[in-house]
Amino acid sequence: MKITNLEIRKLEIPFNISFKHASAERNFTESILVVAESGNNHKGYGEGCPRSYVTGEQIDLSMAFFDKHKSSIQTIENLNELKVWTEEQKKDIDANPAAWCAIELALLDLLGKEQGKSIEELMSLPKLKDKFHYTAVLGVSNYEVFKKQLQQYVHSGFNDFKLKISGKLEEDIEKLNLINKLGDKGSRIRLDANNLWYTPSEAIAYLKQLNANFFAIEEPVTVDQYDALSTIAETLCIKIILDESFLRKEQFEYIQDNPEPWIINLRVSKMGGILRSLDIAEEANRLNVPIIVGAQVGETSILTRSAITVANTYGNILLAQEGAFGIHLLQKDIVRTPLMFGKGGMLSTSSLIGKQGLGLFCTI
């Protein structure tokens, strides 16, 4: 493969509805798109979502990372060289994971098209299974908006719910009660606090008052407080989902001695692409730590597709999947056939069968 052109651009698509949580509110995508073109006129597409409150990234910094490394990236000709480059530039990728994610996905898509292979075939991974099941994600919104969204999820057959809590006790209790009222008896609930509290005692006191049946909470306190998180898990007998507190493989050192309380929210963009995500999932598998294959709010089908590769490969430790909103959330996607969940949160991969690279036809 010879890369003849490599470009980056901002990707801003309005949402159909505003999405809010404790750390941010969004009305449109804030992403980057990378396009890699070969001498055979194939094009590969990659996406990344820089988030200052997750990895410290901003779009202008992602653009600077791209400009810095563009010339050396264009010399990459095969999968092995891509892996070597990733290892050699590890420190810089650690600081710019979303930027590298967009570049890596574009190169993998292009390599697959050049070789006439899906990215699973390209990387010698298991063949895609037929269907994937997604979680209903409920953001911080007023009660009437929340009720309408929940009713739509329930009517569509969802039974797995992630609720982003606000820290306003009466509101959070009211919403949890509504999920229990409208959802079926087999519904599963987990919470996401988006780093609401500073100390474990604050978090424990609040969560006890919810008096609700949830099996896990994501990021209840400020980032990287592993001892505090362990205390919360032990006191409340629940699992802790690591998101902002787990960005790199090296962070296993904080949980490997006692892996039982932990779940890792593995989002391809924040981890720095598919290769690094697979590496983290492999270590999680070794330690028997479950994973949630998550998503950044506003992802297009490109990142949805890349996450499917990870979920498909490590289904044995997969606890849940998030994302695949497509045009449920976006006013438009950038592919001809958006990847998005349907009834019951199910997504079919039938449109990807026999396709090369990521298997998506981009219209941008």
Q: How many strands? A: 15
The structural class is alpha/beta
Could you describe the largest sheet, including whether it forms a barrel? 8 strands, parallel
**Helix share of residues?**
25-40%
Element layout with pairings:
Blueprint: E1 3-11, E2 14-20, E3 25-28, E4 31-38, E5 43-48, H1 59-73, H2 79-88, H3 90-95, H4 97-115, H5 119-122, E6 131-133, E7 136-138, H6 143-155, E8 160-164, H7 169-182, E9 188-192, H8 200-210, E10 216-218, H9 226-236, E11 239-242, E12 262-266, H10 268-271, H11 274-287, E13 291-293, H12 301-313, E14 318-321, E15 346-348
Parallel strand pairs: 7-8, 8-9, 9-10, 10-11, 11-12, 12-13, 13-14
Antiparallel strand pairs: 1-4, 2-3, 4-5, 6-15
Helix pairs in contact: 1-4, 6-7, 8-9, 11-12
What would the keywords be for this entry?
364 residues, eight-stranded parallel beta sheet, alpha/beta, 12 helices, Enolase-like, domain 1
Notes on the protein architecture:
- There is one protein chain.
- This protein is α/β, with parallel strands linked by helices and 364 residues long.
- It has helices at residues 59-73, 79-88, 90-95, 97-115, 119-122, 143-155, 169-182, 200-210, 226-236, 268-271, 274-287, 301-313; strands spanning 3-11, 14-20, 25-28, 31-38, 43-48, 131-133, 136-138, 160-164, 188-192, 216-218, 239-242, 262-266, 291-293, 318-321, 346-348.
- Helix 9 links the parallel strand 10 and strand 11.
- The longest helix is centred in the first third of the chain and has 19 residues, at 97-115.
- 47% of the residues are buried.
